[in-house]
Amino acid sequence: MRRGHHKKGQAQGPAKTPSDSAGKVAGACGTQGAGPGAGHGRGWGRARAAGLALPLLLGQLLALTGGGGAFYLEVSEQEEKCFIQEIPDGTVIIGNYKTELYDPAMEKYQPSPQWINLFVFVKDPENKNLLARQYGPWGSFTFTSQSPGEHQICLHLESIRFALFYDGKLAIHLDMQLGEHTNDYMELAANDKLTLLHLRIQQLVEQVEKIQKEQEYQRWREERFRQTSESTNQRVLWWFILQTFILVATGIWQMQHLKSFFKAKKLV
Amino acid sequence: MGSVASRSACALPLLLLLLLLQAERPGGAELTFELPDNAKQCFHEDVEQGVKFSLDYQVITGGHYDVDCYVEDPLGNTIYRETKKQYDSFTHQAEVKGVYQFCFSNEFSTFSHKTIYFDFQVGDEPPILPDMGNRVTALTQMESACVTIHEALKTVIDSQTHYRLREAQDRARAEDLNSRVSYWSVGETIALFVVSFSQVLLLKSFFTEKRPVSRMVHS
């Protein structure tokens, strides 16, 4: 049983710790009085849209290079690691990854050289290939599920140079995101000029959509479960009838055969 | 100064804060993977000092639905170790900065593959707009209502995941049962025919004259 996993942020109410967003929007930045941006007025607005793109990109790169948030697993070359994702149809999955090579001299992981490639293989529940591509030593792969169910995502490392790794350890940092979390709120705020409250409501709307999707998926799963159970029920019923029939038929055959045998032997 | 201007004005500090926050952006991963028999799978995560992390895991299919799990800190101390558990939840505050390792082991099993789901969360959830320094006013009623709804929805999503895992487990069992019934019915038909045929043959052999044997006895 998954314990009541109160995911961090113990939001108990108004007296929230500073890790939550600020109150009124108009007051938030204006009263801060900090930053060189304060007081620039309308001219800053034009530069803002362009200016946000670069830091966002930097931020993503920082996240990847700093290994922020992604765990890693150790593999040896050619070893295939597979993960299973049970998702409804139409879900977008984005996997950010980064590979590193263990340097025994320095006793830590260094970023991989360019000749190490990651081969990503995604199979959908009907064993159809959704994705089968080779990627560089770091980057991201993405796919959209066509049918609901268990998808298999397999990764293995290949090096173009066929270098022999005797003790070669490689680390794959992996971060898979599905659906809702692929939205970047800073980007939304920049593009659509939304207030903080609007953003919060947007986040709630996305959460509710995610719940709705999961419930649809649940309906599909329950139907499959019911089909399997009914099929088992039918099979057991047919088998019971068939078995009785076979038993009786075999018994009759045995008796007839032995009777004719004994008659031939003149014992009866 | 209108609201547009003030929003524009707070862009730069927000950006700076965002860049700073990336350094300690909380991470988390929930994954399902298959653990073959006699195998061990380890995952590593870099955690800062003082950050709380939690690990939830559950065995979905395989054998007796149990797995061994242990968590080690960067110094090599085992901070959590459980054997043959079906599901558990573990939280810990990182005292040492470094790479923490958590491993699942199926080494006690000789022939059953296990499918294991785990959810590893590090740190707190980030605010949707990172302006941590701007908490001069308390949340408005609307905002705090939003926060409450957000937390409640997170609980709903969590419990949906729980039900999905449970259902996956049951469905795997049901499909297993279905295929077992097929194999068993075919197998038993064959066994029935073989047994009845050999019964008849054996009985007939009791009553056949053993001429070759008697000849040997007399000579």
Q: Can you walk me through this structure?
A:
The complex is a heterodimer of chains A (268) and B (219). The longest helix of chain A has 69 residues, at 196-264. In chain A, the strands form two sheets. In chain A, strands 1, 3, 4, 7 and 9 form a five-stranded antiparallel sheet that branches. A four-stranded antiparallel sheet of chain A has the order 2-8-5-6. Among the domains of chain A are: 81-179, Jelly Rolls; 193-260. Chain A starts with 24 loop residues before the first helix and ends with a helix. Chain A contains four helices and nine strands; from the N terminus they run ααβββββββββαα. In chain A, a hairpin with a 4-residue loop joins strand 3 and strand 4 (108-111). Chain A is α+β, with helices and mostly antiparallel strands. With 219 residues, chain B is of the alpha+beta class. Chain B folds into two domains: 26-126, Jelly Rolls (Sandwich); 139-206. Chain B is built from four helices and eight strands; from the N terminus they run ααββββββββαα. In chain B, the strands form two sheets. Chain B has a four-stranded antiparallel sheet with strand order 1-8-3-6. In chain B, strands 2-7-4-5 form a four-stranded antiparallel sheet, with no helix packed on it. Chain B is elongated, with a radius of gyration of 32 Å. The N and C termini of chain B lie far apart (128 Å). Mean pLDDT of chain B is 81; it is low at 8-25.
